[in-house]
Amino acid sequence: MKKGLCLVGFLVLAAQLPLSGYDSSPSGLQVVPEAIWAAATGGGTWVTEIQITNYHATPADVQVYFDYNGGAVGPIMLYAGLAQFRSIRYPNILAAIDSLDAGATVYFGKVGALMFYSPGRLLQVQAKTVNGNYGKTFPGLPPVTGNTAAENRPMIIQDLVQNATYRTSVGAYNAGSISITVTFTILDAADVTIGSSFTRTLGGYGFLSFNPFTQAGVPSGTYENCWLYINVTSGGVQDNGLMCYGSIANNLTNDTYALIAKMYD
Fold first, then answer.
1. Deepest of 14, 37, 112, 228, by most Cβ within 10 A of its Cβ?
2. What is the pTM for the complete model shown?
3. In the chain, which residues fall in CATH 2.60.290.11?
4. Mind spelling out the 3-state secondary structure of the chain?
């Protein structure tokens, strides 16, 4: 299976897809910013479920790309001929890709972002990451202006918390082919910076996940009612820019909650 550079030129194709005026509308390109198949802290296994629905009058051949920290896989033909208004569900999407990839990549133990691609069609995608009785949901979204951060187009993630009960994680996915540099800043309710701002560079289609408080230099201590300011400082001039998400998890039960990135202005 081709890796890494297989995604060069991907956005040229994506630009030809039908898109409406809404940031959550169906499109031929849908991104889920987090997919995981890995052992969970405290026991069990996190898996990501996926449902794909075709809203186009013509059957959709759905391809999938998986980009993770240190690698990229795709395109893989996930499903051929999904008819209009029909849906397909994968209870563990990375295990499904693993079976199609014929052992070329080890998927267990990985977390990354998924691109679902069907040229000229209209897809909607919904993701649910679960471990036993606990889970969180993420919508699949097209990587358009309203869903991405770029230069002069910052985003925020609200409700960050670090205390005896909860921990926070953040993921960032570069949905474009150009390397970008991003500065992250945690702010409290009084608009005071928590710890220090930190900068990361993501190559084309690069993915990373992290605890923002640890990266800000405050891995311990109690912080509540915080938010994350996400500012692309270089390279991010395309509409298909940086897609981010956050989540908080209960330290005792591993129950999780999704935190959706929003436009800053």
1. 112
2. 0.87
3. 4-16+23-141, 147-263
4. CCEHHHHCCHHHHHCCCCCCCCCCCCECEEEEEEEEEEECCCCCEEEEEEEEEECCCCCEEEEEEEEECCEEEEEEEEEEEECCCCEEEECCHHHHHHHHCCCCCCCCCEEEEEEEECCCCCEEEEEEEEECCEEEEEECECCCHHHCEEECECEEEEEEEECCCEEEEEEEEECCCCCEEEEEEEECCCCCEEEEEEEEEECCCCEEEECHHHHCCCCCCCEEEEEEEEEEEECCCCCCCEEEEEEEEECCCCCEEEEECEECC
Rounded Cα–Cα distance for residues 68 and 89 (Å): 22
Distance between CA atoms of residues 170 and 183, nearest Å = 13
What pLDDT, in 10s, does the model give residues 126-147?
999 999 889 999 999 998 888 9
What rounded mean pLDDT belongs to the chain?
A: 89
Q: What class has domain 147-263?
A: mainly beta
Contact 235, 179 (CB under 8 A): yes
Q: Does domain 4-16+23-141 bear CATH number 1.10.3720.10?
A: no
pLDDT digits (tens, 9 = 90+) for 93-102: 999 999 999 8
- 247-256 pLDDT, tens digit per residue, is 999 988 888 9
Higher pLDDT, 141 or 1: 141
Residue of 128, 112, 104, 26 whose CA lies nearest to 65: 112
